[in-house]
Amino acid sequence: IDGLKVYNRLMTAQTNGQKATLEDISLSVDQVDVINRQIFPLMERMIDGIEQSIALDIPFLLTERTERVADLKDIMQRSDVTVA
């Protein structure tokens, strides 16, 4: 009987630890959604900043740099590309 009490106590502690871990994971998933909503506007502002830098900079490889910014804008529109 003492062995069962020890076993039950250990299993209870393990279950409580798993519940705490599950709550942490759930909170992390919720935070990922918030970050995803915030990252897109940030990325758009950054791309706009790059575009302005190119416009104000010397015309070094202007066409190539402009095309790369256009490619970045296209990527932002695609649904198959993740934030990562």
Fold and architecture overview:
- The longest helix has 55 residues, at 2-56.
- This protein has one domain (2-77).
- The chain has two helices and no strands.
- Helix 1 (2-56) runs antiparallel to helix 2.
- The chain has helices spanning 2-56, 62-77.
- It has 84 residues and is mainly α.
> Mind describing the biggest β-sheet?
none
User: Termini distance?
Assistant: 53 Å
Provide the domain count.
1
Proportion of residues in extended strands: under 5%
Gross geometry: rod-shaped
Taken in chain order, the helices and strands follow as HH
Question: How are the SSEs ordered, and which strands pair?
Answer:
Blueprint: H1 2-56, H2 62-77
